[in-house]
Amino acid sequence: MHYGNMQAWLESTQLAGANATYVEELYESYLTDPQSVDADWRALFDQLPKVEGVDVETKHSEVREDFRQAAKNTHRKQVVVQAESSDEKQVKVLQLINAFRFRGHQHANLDPLGLWKQERVRDLELSHHGLTQEDMDKVYNVGSLKVGAEKLPLRDIHSALVKTYCGSIGAEYMHITSTDEKRWLQQRLESVKATANLTADAKKKLYKELVAADGLEKYLGSKFPGAKRFSLEGGDALIPMLKELISRAGAQGAKEVVIGMAHRGRLNVLVNVLGKNPSVLFDEFAGKFDKGNGSGDVKYHMGYSSDFATPGGDVHLALAFNPSHLEIVNPVVMGSVRARMDRRGCTDGTQALPITIHGDSAIAGQGVVQETFNLSQTRAFQVGGTVRIVVNNQVGFTTSNPEDTRSTQYCTDIAKMVQAPIFHVNSDDPEAVILATQIALDFRNTFKRDVVIDLVCYRRHGHNEADEPNATQPLMYQKIKKHPVPREIYAQQLANEGLFDEKDAKKAIDEYRAALDHGACVVEEWRPMMEHSVDWSPYVGNDWDSPYDASLTLEQITDLAKRVSSYPEDVTPQSRVKKIYQDRQTMAAGDKLIDWGFAETLAYASLVENGTNIRITGQDAGRGTFFHRHAVIHDQKDASGYQPLQNVDKKQGRFEVYDSVLSEEAVLAFEYGYATAEPTSLVIWEAQFGDFANGAQVVIDQFLCSGEQKWGRLCGLTLLLPHGYEGQGPEHSSARLERFLQLCADHNMQVCVPTTPAQVFNMIRRQHIRPVRRPLVVMSPKSLLRHPAATSTMEELASGIFHDVIDEIDVLETEKVDRVVFCSGKVYYDLLDARRKNELNNVAIVRIEQLYPFPHKEMDEIIEKYNHVKEFVWCQEEPQNQGAWYCSQHHFWNSIPAGANLTYAGREASASPAVGYLSVHNVQQKALVKDALGLKED
């Protein structure tokens, strides 16, 4: 529609003053969905100038103001004439404002080295919007631009836009769909033109923090030349940024802050933020260590805890231990924060703040980053938002350039998937860094969402101090060699402002170096650590044989069984679920043996009744992948959920079960972080199929199995990994038992393969009641969940005993036994069935229910009566190179009598965990059972 035609159309509409609100609402609807408005209105709105590169215009009150004025004017012909002249210019000014909000960051002064080659953005040019120098002194309505005036000359509007969006902060936020969030950010940025307003004292404090950041690196470089320290030099502003975050968070109510970061700058953060004693760090550089501290780890992996004084009181700080696998620490930090929130009864993250520090290549390259962003707003994993800082040294990991490390303009583009605002900031402008930090934290605390600060800096040395960066980045490092350090740049700025002179600047340097020489804490805010976290002392120094009592009376179990097998009359379960609960009611009445799902449920009920908190996550955790748990009854009338385990007792512990996102790595890391911060809760992660744990192998290798040895970190996390060969193909059979057994040493974890409901009941209770906090890895069943022989009595549950080894259950004449078969897991029932059918009274079957720590004492007690036997067999379903055979046969050999023989019965070695054809599986299974029992082939 041309403006000439528009005049006639306007005259035919009801565009009068009373309809101004109606026009505004139409325009809002148009911006959300153009097809939602009438074709004539859509044609009118389509005529408004568009911003190049922007698909949907933002919802601006300034544009609505033009319609409001048009609606008030009863002389419609005059309105159209104005639209062709001054009003058209007004709209273009508003579009210019919009363009800077969208794309101003692309012309921001972000690179301290000045090497970035930013492409020309025509949307930011006056000429692109039909504006000229002749318009610069004309006065226009600023619309929603937060500059303190309703109208300004274009010259002042343009100047404010350039200063706000093209200075040392490049703000990306227009990808956010929430109008409230965008307006909030506009208010914070535009009202101060993205300029910090620091007092003289604050500036001097900021300078001292830069002195500390620079001073520690130089001190270490001179005292330990050539030693790896992954220097922060170039990214010095990280130190004042973190201290501002912690101080401001404390002022706003935070009681705990958990930080996760990789190597770069970690030693600096330990000393200059958390207050680690420099003399201790120097001893570590000198190679001194505590002989009683396990295997230990390198300096730049170690964690630390301290207290930090803030205007709102002392805040407890924790720097998470982190291996070399870069971004994997992020979900660990979030899990730790969630545990602290739950302990404090905090549901929105106000009292606990997670801070994760990333590398520019890692945040773009590591898949766990996407997984962690995806967790951030889900019920099971939300922590009220994470402040994510990127130490962007512009060099990918070791030698790569940005074009080799990502396919996006910025390394932070991944954060747009959760509509997180992103603040790119020049690290050589520390005041801009402080402002970006303040806005980022306030956004997180206001909207409970993730926020990203991209600290654009450089790396003064190579990847480590023994590296030679000129070999691959000659131009960059020629520039870096001549570039003054941040402390020098800021000192000159303060001198120009008359705040202090060269003598004052040198005095601060000398005082910091003297403090390092003295070896004491150099952080003024450091405070002696009070008890902020749960008490771990009951679990320290204990081992598997520590005494415990997990027995219950039959009356207690029967009472619990009745409570957790019932649900309110107004709840309508699905028919199959109803049948499961009817069966459980029959079991509770003593008229039916206990099955696997009910035994597991009873274990949880017995713990929550006594005040234990339980947290279970997994991709089908509520229902159970194999339709056995049904901890949540989904009402068929309204889809609401009822959880019997949340209604066990009025004073019970918290029971939470969540269907997790479709992730293993981030979810398992989150649960590890939760369990390391909360020993009084039972924390369980269930894989949909056991082999899915493959996707979380880095968590298992670098945290779960070795965290205690490397860092002294106890963790009672339980893994339920469905395992068993039912002919479902390679990827639905094996939880890779062999991998866990290979990782077992130093009594670092338990690996169990329970075969009865009573065993799983007592195993779960033992994991929590025993005063030991180490991981429990369970090869949990699939077909056994409904196997008619896999049942237990109430009395077996009440015993409170998990049997590490179970002897032959049939009545055999021991002296006639000439073969003993060892096995674990589901294959036991195949062996038992075949042995009974063939009436083999000379073969005893012994189940090893705990493969690690191997139960030598229990085995010795059972094998004693088979001392006359010469033929012992280990039988497994898995191929010979998998399962328990290779990793555990030395234990089997140690258990059998001297002179006896041990042979293997199972599938041949295979590159694949299992065959893909049921018929082939059945043939193999039948053959291995016969082989184990000594039966001849058909």
UniProtKB/TrEMBL annotation:
Keyword set includes Oxidoreductase: yes
MF terms in GO: oxoglutarate dehydrogenase (succinyl-transferring) activity; thiamine pyrophosphate binding
InterPro entries on file: 2-oxogl_dehyd_N, 2oxoglutarate_DH_E1, DH_E1, KGD_C_sf, ODO-1/KGD_C, THDP-binding, Transketolase-like_Pyr-bd
Limits of the Transketolase-like pyrimidine-binding domain: 594-787
Keyword vocabulary terms for this entry: Oxidoreductase, Thiamine pyrophosphate
Any one of the GO CC terms: oxoglutarate dehydrogenase complex
Cofactor: thiamine diphosphate
Signal peptide boundaries: none
Enzyme Commission (EC) number: 1.2.4.2
Biological process annotations from GO: tricarboxylic acid cycle
Pfam families for this protein: 2-oxogl_dehyd_N (PF16078), E1_dh (PF00676), OxoGdeHyase_C (PF16870), Transket_pyr (PF02779)
Statement: the UniProt record of this protein carries the keyword Oxidoreductase: yes
Protein family according to the UniProt entry: Belongs to the alpha-ketoglutarate dehydrogenase family.
Role, per record: E1 component of the 2-oxoglutarate dehydrogenase (OGDH) complex which catalyzes the decarboxylation of 2-oxoglutarate, the first step in the conversion of 2-oxoglutarate to succinyl-CoA and CO(2).
Name the UniProt record assigns to this protein: 2-oxoglutarate dehydrogenase E1 component
Organism: Saccharobesus litoralis
